Amino acid sequence: QITLKESGPTLVKSTQTLTLTCTFSGFSLSTYGVGVGWVRQPPGKALEWLALLYWDEDKRYRPSLKNRLNITHDTSRNQVVLTMTNMDPVDTATYYCVSRSNILAFFDDWGQGTLVTVSS
Amino acid sequence: QSVLTQPPSVSGAPGQRVTISCTGSSSNIGNYDVHWYQQLPGTAPKLLIYSNKYRPSGVSDRFSGSKSGTSASLAITGLQAEDEADYYCQSHDNSLSGVIFGGGTKLTVL
């Protein structure tokens, strides 16, 4: 059974850096085709893909946010960490950790999400 | 504004069939698969259809997907109250070199 769980602050201030951790189980990020990433959803709005880390350590980012994002893998703890710098109130959203189990580009599994509010 | 265009809302009576469209371009749907997600109120999205037309295990056969050219569609037959949710299409965009989502469609069961 695959599980993904997000953790991190629920409130950050403008200009601060957000660090979110996704702790996963039930699969290995070393397996060919597997990926773990992040998707966010501002209140009442659509889903936005942010970043994806592939089994081969390749990393992809949303182009408009590329300069602010960094995704890393802590292999010893089965965790993927997303950092987003220079937070702004428009970054207020529910942040979901997502996984893909194969080379096909869809997200099989989603975490429950964590709401992050950015105060000015 | 999303790269993939979906109608903001659709509705139908119980038992009816509804379709949700997802329109893109040659840089995305025209050359890549489309996937669909269902987001029930207050919950995380769930994979509904992958690679244009395949259902993950456990997804009702009342849901079906199709793709033609630069557009895709999700069809729901035998509409039920529990189908009331937001539906999102997703693909890959070559120009943006990444994952893209549609703007989402809210399905209301009358």
Main attributes?
heterodimer; A: 120 residues; mainly beta; 7-stranded mixed β-sheet; 4-stranded antiparallel β-sheet; B: 110 residues; 3-stranded antiparallel β-sheet; 0% helix; 45% strand
The quaternary structure here is: heterodimer
Order of helices and strands of chain B: EEEEEEEEE
Tell me about the biggest sheet of chain A? 7 strands, mixed
What proportion strand of chain B? 35-45%
Shape of chain B: globular
Which of globular, elongated, flat, extended, rod-shaped describes the shape of chain A? globular
Please provide a written account of the structure.
The complex is a heterodimer of chains A (120) and B (110). Chain A starts with a strand and ends with a strand. By secondary structure, chain A is an all-beta fold. In chain A, 0% of the residues lie in helices and 51% in strands. The chains are: A mainly beta (120), B mainly beta (110). At the A-B interface, strand 5 and strand 10 of A face strand 7 and strand 8 of B.
